[in-house]
């Protein structure tokens, strides 16, 4: 039943008349694919709230669908605005408007703040040079945009991830983007390809890609809630799942469920890793359609 609901939620997104709308729809499909994937440790998915009390699968889908115009606007900015600084500041404004749209749709819940940043940069970069949609090329262009300073952005947002960056001296979502999304290009996408090549199901391949990111990412969502001890436990647990065959293997699956239970007990959720998985799914789809299939 849940699978049918997920399919119905995504189906209208396929009717997109131009490039910007098509790219915006593909971002939203990636977000729905990410939140529907299960079982994800500590995260909202189609069967669980994870470590959250204010979020669930339905609300995450409502949020993703409400953001489709934002991602289309970001893509359109990538097409229309050639000077790089003007582009950076235009998409910054669109992103802030998108965040307000998200909060209005969710009654104030932060469902996709990180995704607006990460996938917003990537969809802009894809639209800017649609003749080159190889994942690494799109990520490089997104990094070039992210490294520019938006003069109109607030100096301090008060977001928990921003505070965690200061408290624990990590780069967070901004650092990941400015570096060209290395956890997407060098970790998530290769793991996705390796899992597919050895015959894992698509669900297992996507879970393994998520776990590979979790194993090394300094996830500010986890740091903000649980500090360095929670981050170390999450990273060690993700490595252990992969070392025991990943999500497709019975031992790996057992350890994945144990990791989920432990993260829920600690009230921590790897939201940064989830955003990067959604980014990987978006780039994977883009690359495949453009003739650049993901390789291990």
TrEMBL record:
Function: Involved in the formation of 2-(5''-phosphoribosyl)-3'-dephosphocoenzyme-A, the prosthetic group of the acyl-carrier protein of the malonate decarboxylase.
Gene3D superfamilies named in the record: Triphosphoribosyl-dephospho-CoA protein (1.10.4200.10)
The protein's name: Probable 2-(5''-triphosphoribosyl)-3'-dephosphocoenzyme-A synthase
Organism: Caballeronia calidae
Family: Belongs to the CitG/MdcB family.
Keyword presence, Nucleus: no
Keyword Nucleotide-binding applies: yes
PANTHER family: 2-(5''-TRIPHOSPHORIBOSYL)-3'-DEPHOSPHOCOENZYME-A SYNTHASE, TRIPHOSPHORIBOSYL-DEPHOSPHO-COA SYNTHASE
Domain of life: Bacteria
Lineage: Bacteria, Pseudomonadati, Pseudomonadota, Betaproteobacteria, Burkholderiales
Keywords: ATP-binding, Nucleotide-binding, Transferase
One GO BP annotation of this record: prosthetic group biosynthetic process
EC category name: transferase
Pfam annotation, one family: CitG
Enzyme Commission number(s) from the entry: 2.4.2.52
Catalytic activity, as annotated: 3'-dephospho-CoA + ATP = 2'-(5''-triphospho-alpha-D-ribosyl)-3'-dephospho-CoA + adenine
MF-aspect GO terms: ATP binding; triphosphoribosyl-dephospho-CoA synthase activity
């Amino acid at each position: 039943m849940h699978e049918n609901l997920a399919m119905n939620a995504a189906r209208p997104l396929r009717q997109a008349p131009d490039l910007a709308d098509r790219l915006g729809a593909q971002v939203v499909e990636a977000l729905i694919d990410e939140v529907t994937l299960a079982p994800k440790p500590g995260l909202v998915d189609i069967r669980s709230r994870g470590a959250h009390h204010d979020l669930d699968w339905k609300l995450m889908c409502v949020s993703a669908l409400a953001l489709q115009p934002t991602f289309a606007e970001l893509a359109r900015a990538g097409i229309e605005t050639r000077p790089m600084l003007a582009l950076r500041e235009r998409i910054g404004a669109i992103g802030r408007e998108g965040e307000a749209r998200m909060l209005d749709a969710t009654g104030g819940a932060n469902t996709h703040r990180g995704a607006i940043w990460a996938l917003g940069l990537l969809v802009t970069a894809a639209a800017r040079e649609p003749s080159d949609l190889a994942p690494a090329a799109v990520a490089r262009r997104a990094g070039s945009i992210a490294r520019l300073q938006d003069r109109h952005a607030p100096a301090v947002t008060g977001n928990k991830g921003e505070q965690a960056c200061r408290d624990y001296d990590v780069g967070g979502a901004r650092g990941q983007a400015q570096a060209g999304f290395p956890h997407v290009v060098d970790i998530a996408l290769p793991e996705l390809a390796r899992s597919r090549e050895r015959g894992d199901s698509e669900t297992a391949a996507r879970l393994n890609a998520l776990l590979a990111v979790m194993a090394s990412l300094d996830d500010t969502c986890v740091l903000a809630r649980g500090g360095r001890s929670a981050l170390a436990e999450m990273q060690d647990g993700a490595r252990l799942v992969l070392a025991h065959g990943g999500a497709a293997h019975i031992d790996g699956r057992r350890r994945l469920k144990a990791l989920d239970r432990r993260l829920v007990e600690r009230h921590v959720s790897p939201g940064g890793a989830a955003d990067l998985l959604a980014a990987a799914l978006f780039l994977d789809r883009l690359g495949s359609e453009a003739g650049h299939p993901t390789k291990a």
